Amino acid sequence: MRPVLEVADVFRRHGAAFRDRHDEHLGRVERRVIAAIEACRTLALGGHVEQCGDCGLVRCAYNSCRNRHCPKCQGLARAEWLEARQAELLPVPYFHVVFTMPVPAAEIAFQNKRVVYAILFRAAAEAMRDVAADPRHLGAEIGAVAVLHSWGQAMTYHPHLHCIVPAGGLSPDQTRWVACRPGFLLPVRVLSRRFREVFVARLQAAFVRGELRFSGTLAALANPTAFAERLAALLGVEWVVYAKPPFAGPDAVLAYLGRYTHRVAIANSRLTKLTDDAVDFTWKDYRDQGKTKIMTLGADEFIRRFLLHTVPDGFHRIRHIGFMANGHRTEKLALCRTLLAAPTPKPAEPESYRDRTQRLTGHALDICPDCGGAMQQRGPLPRRHPARQPFWCDSS
User: What gap in Å lies between CA 276 and CA 300, rounded to an integer?
Assistant: First the structure.
């Protein structure tokens, strides 16, 4: 069922004016995101006509934009990804570790997303691997799933990583599972300082290679002396890394991952009001005991904040670390199960796309919503402007 309000409604109502006002500052990715969300599940993308064989209900099924920034297009992708992760869970506790960067680093990241986001992933991965490998802390090879987020509740820019980490790892000789102490993963202060050290070193190397670009208020950082001063300032402050208590079992891990992996800057469900000049949405004020409040932003500012969180084409926002890295994940997880005396997951049974979609999302694509009869395709709907929509098509 369509929400009362959608991000797409904001873009359709105010997107053209936003493009006109900010044309010279919009990049290719931002323009494509606006266009995709505006067109998603409308005649602009085409689709097909369906009719119920029992009650005769006719409906139009419009194509999705499938843009990863679109709030409506993440459900199936999230369900499929979670199903794959469920088969990889080990029978051990899991921790939630968050890596954040201070504002002076985030400013550089915003103007150099592809380079600095990659550094963020690599620095977090290297910090976890190094600290875990130290016999004083764990003495093992650990694994993790890391997810990049760049927003807070008010859609301001705040890049950080959420990592799901099994409580233990493989011994150096790969012959035993080394478990963490109960309720404790790794010392966060040691982890934080190693993360800071690796991040700054990699950022400096990227500058030397000429991979960073600066403009506007950061233009002075193109000067090596000014950039060195910025790096010195970054080394002089504490970086925030924290680990939450372990999850209460595998189901809790999956529930958490489901909330975080395929999220966009704001969900449709948080929108409460749209006018000719403003957007209202709910947000949690964590400085006031997490109370839910209503925030009002001008439509232009709402779109600007939403677009802050676009990611470069082809950039992977979810990555696997350590023994869970893609190159050897299957073999290493099999070894972990053997050492933990855990059963091997059964392979999934073959099924059709429609059956799989219904099982994962709970929505039957071919069942009439009115009488439960079978929906049958009547023919395609070519792409065209939504204003020419046939009178018998329900756009909701």
Answer: 11
Q: List pLDDT tens digits, range 109-161.
A: 999 999 999 999 999 999 999 999 999 999 999 999 999 999 988 999 999 99
Residue 227 CA to residue 221 CA, distance in Å, equals: 5
Q: Determine the Cα–Cα distance for residues 37 and 65; give it in Å rounded to an integer.
A: 7
Type of residue at 390: P
Domain extent listing, the chain: 7-69+362-388, 88-265+308-339
Can you tell me the distance from the alpha carbon of 162 to that of 99, in angstroms, rounded to the nearest whole number? 7
Domain 88-265+308-339 belongs in CATH node 1.10.10: no
- Range of weakest confidence among 11-20, 46-55, 200-209, 270-279: 46-55
347-354's contacts with Cβ under 8 Å and 24+ in sequence apart are 348/83
What does the block give as tokens for 351?
Answer: 């099924």
Angle at 262 between CA 309 and CA 179, to 5 degrees: 115
Tokens of 56: 């005769």
